[in-house]
Amino acid sequence: MKKLFLFLLLISIFSSLQAAKHQKVFRTAKLEKADTCWIFTPANYDANPGKQYPVVFLLHGWSGNYQQWDDIMGCQSYADKYDFILVCPDGLYDSWYVNSPVLSNSQFEDFFMKELEPYVSKEFRTDKKNFFITGLSMGGHGALYLFSRYPDFFCSAGSLSGAVDLNNCSTSYGIKEHFGLKEDASDKAILDKYSVEYSLESIQKSGKEFIFSCGTSDFFYDINNQLRKSCDKLGIKATYISSPGGHDYTYWKANINAQLLFFSERLSK
User: Fold this and answer.
1) pLDDT tens digits for range 36-90
2) pTM above 0.85?
3) 186 closest CA partner among 102, 95, 91
4) CA angle, 66 as apex, 142 and 48 as ends, to 5°?
5) Residue 212 host element (H or E)
6) Measured between alpha carbons, how far is residue 65 from residues 56, 61, 70, 80 in Å?
7) Could you tell me which CATH class the domain 20-264 is placed in?
């Protein structure tokens, strides 16, 4: 009987944890294919029907998908630890989380603001004063870019190993095709428009803080250092973490907690 009780208890615990992960498939004309999203609610979500929860959007890297962050960190454990709703959309292979100026079926910014976020806020008890966003690599670019576009919408933002200046990788990662580069002098103006390095004024005016980190062996290390200098010049309260590490799962797993802790310390009352 004792073994049976323990077995049933484990099944119950496992089932409750599984129920805290929700899946939604979006079919939209704004993207070239369906977008699958995982949403993790804290373990105590159902037990607190009157509570609204902060939300963290987690954006994956180039060539990744909506499962990447869960593979890296185990999203449920962090949703439970910080009492956050964690949202993991699919940025597709190379959406760069923007509205492409040349591809009508790659309008991720519009999808995010007009379909993804409204769905999350309608179906879950979200605290709209406390929306955060972060991501890795392409997702780090996307998180800070969207923060710069909507500084009043997000409480704060983060980036890990972010491609914060697209000029640095303009010949790779599908950037030429996605942004319609012509390999002439006009390319820099296009990439500047979509790079957070050149879009900091709105964040400066908002007075809000953000956090970003990059490993010292990362090929995006220099552009993250430059972003630090640009923030200092503009007086932006940005926390920059520079530590040993490369552009890999080991680094991201070791550094995501600092970002979620940063967000938890800046919850708006």
Assistant:
1) 999 999 999 999 999 999 999 999 999 999 999 999 999 999 999 999 999 999 9
2) yes
3) 102
4) 100
5) strand 210-215
6) 17, 8, 10, 22
7) alpha beta
